[in-house]
Design a protein that fits this description.
Blueprint (H helix, E strand, L loop, with lengths): L3 H19 L6 H11 L5 H12 L2
Length: 58
């Protein structure tokens, strides 16, 4: 059986992505996985931001 917290995180992320899409923005699958990994405590926000900055030259 799936952890209820995991289901809640996934549902919240889906709602956020839908809201972004309504505003004309997109959130890639890779970014969604990155967000979930932070929320699960698997990675830090700093690690993810460093990866995004390295990719986009920020």
């Amino acid at each position: 059986m799936k952890d209820p917290r995991e289901t809640q995180l996934s549902d919240s992320l889906r709602n956020m992505v839908t809201s972004f899409q309504m505003e004309g923005m997109t959130v890639s699958e890779a970014m969604q996985e990155m967000l979930l990994s932070v929320l699960r405590g698997e990675r830090t926000l700093d690690e993810c931001l460093a990866q995004v900055n390295a990719k986009y030259g920020g």
